[in-house]
Amino acid sequence: MSSIDQIKQQISGELQHFDHYFNEVMKTHIPLLNMVIKYLLRRKGKQMRPVLVFLSAKLLGKPNDSTYTAAALIEILHTATLIHDDVVDESNERRGFFSINALWKSKIAVLVGDYLLAKGLLLAIGNKEYEILSLVSDAVREMSEGELMQIRHSRKLKISEVEYFEIIRKKTATLISCCSSSGAKSVGVSEEQVVTMKRFGELLGIAFQIKDDLLDYQINNLTGKPVGNDIQEKKLTLPLIHALEESNVSERKHILRKMNSNHNKGSHKFKEVLTFITKYNGITYAENKMKEYAAKAVSELAVFENNEVRQALEKFVSYAIERNK
Asked: What pLDDT digit, counting tens, does each position of 14-29 carry?
């Protein structure tokens, strides 16, 4: 399995410069805001989205000022949406760290998220990156639509496989496709190449989200307990959707009642739902779908020169579906 650190080697110089650039972009003289932003910068994750921007740019040209603006804009707006998500979900943790709302309460978290949204917009406008701003703004719009669609279906506990794929395309794949298409756009390639990279990112993003959904049915490596967040939040994801579609009416009704119940929370509910999913090969079905989308993503890259950067992008796809967290 390829590690994210191995993938980053092809753009190590660009990422080092990006870290300095991003820190400068995020500077503020408002003490409380500065404190929150410093905390955000300290707990940054694997930088998967900037990595995808720079790899996509380097596949087709030489990363430039537009590439750095695109990567920063996407990272800023992505961070803003995560902060708002934690407020909506009343989540106290993000990637093993306290969330902003846990440390500074929801009002400050919402305001920091709003500030970052404005910061990202102003960064793009200040650098006259209107086309990239349009790509990113469209992605954020679709992400919001996807989340609202998922909430609606979760309340009704009814969702088809077609609806599931449309939701994850909007809420996850659209931002990942924005990374690859923005990276391509930043180096001035043809519209055809930008569209190809957008398709690559969308297919990768769908595979990435299916993997996230599958991870929710695994054992938490830190606690040794089932994760099961989606079950507790009444989210129907692909393994369960497939099992429900394959089961008979009485089984389906029983599992949906169990999902909708506020009793029997925790591992008991998780185990019963997982047993049901396993009976109808829901995990295997979702894994196969994930691999199909990953293979389609890799096939989109076949039109480009087979160099080390393209190979790094192919490894990025493998990492996305083989990771354990």
From this structure: 999 999 999 999 988 8
